[in-house]
Amino acid sequence: MACFLVPAAEAVITTVAAKVMKSKEKEESVEVSLSADGSVEEATKIPFSTKLGWLNKLLWGGSVLLAFEHVWHGEVIPYFPFLTAVKSGETAEMFAEMGSAGVMMAALITAVWVGMLAVSSVIEKRALRAPKIAEEDILK
Amino acid sequence: MTLLTTVFAAIICTILWYKGAPKSEMKVSILCWMYWGASLMWLIDAIFEYAELGAEYFTPDPLDMLNDFYLGLSVVALGLIIWLIILLVKDPKGVVKATLFKKK
What we know:
The structure holds two protein chains of two kinds.
Chain A: H1 5-24, E1 28-33, E2 40-45, H2 48-72, H3 84-87, H4 91-139
Antiparallel strand pairs in A: 1-2
Chain B: H1 2-20, H2 28-53, H3 62-90, H4 95-100
Helix pairs in contact in B: 1-2, 1-3, 2-3
């Protein structure tokens, strides 16, 4: 009916949040081994606003493609009130679907993104630890 | 079928992204985010449908399957069009700019 509107609304909020964060963030320089030969280079850690951008892209991308699916099934129309459910007086059912499927969609995407944050944090920590271990080995 | 089509598109795009990373000249990551986002959302749709239909969910009518596959392909095509527009507008390789200007 209109479940994609919930992740789309979340996308609007996270896009604004990412823009605000980006304007306040500073670059953090670190020493890390990026190549397979183990040579240490100076690099910048990606800021949180970029990671929030991952969530934005997941939410916007998914919402756009799902909106197309709703047009395909005749649930979204190109004229006022734009939603067939509102036109046919099924607003209560539409809100119920948004509250169940829509909220679950937004929650699943956010959960996957949190998982990505956790994995990227582990990878970052490992990469930062690697040059230090190599340095200690040389000193021994 | 729509979910399956989008998941396959997402997997293929992720492999292509990994092959070209970290350069990302073709901006394949846009396709990855779009298809994975849609796949996750359709997964929820599929779970709700499974809760309603039970095992019947896995034995759809051939006509419904064909229509869903047609929708899946259309979704993939729409994703590709969006990606192409972003690629040409951002023009990371400077190809569009180079076509518009001639060196003296």
